[in-house]
Amino acid sequence: MDYTIHNVNDSLDAAIQERAREESKSVNVVLLEALTRGLSSKPSAPVAGELADIFPGVPLEPEVLKAIGDQRRVEPEIWQ
Question: Residues 72-78: contacts with CB within 8 Å, 24+ apart?
């Protein structure tokens, strides 16, 4: 089955093209994988890792980066 998608905005197009380049895949394969993930009837497992892994291509605000850094800081007095 073949589909045609109209009115893809520039930022989405750029994200699709970038993902295809990064993963050395065709745009078609990247879109099929995204649609499969997005329309899967099974609940997906929680994703472990960095926020950038969960939201690729989304820049993190300075406040978010600071909060992440604060959460990673070890307070030695608590771990004695």
Answer: none
Q: What is the pLDDT of residues 22-51, one digit of tens each?
A: 999 999 999 999 998 888 766 555 555 666
Contact 27, 16 (CB under 8 A): yes
CB 16 within 8 A of CB 30: yes
CA atoms within 13 A of residue 30's CA, in its CB half-sphere: 16
Exposed, middle or buried by CB within 10 Å (0-12, 13-18, 19+), for 63?
A: exposed
* Helix, coil or strand: residue 49: coil
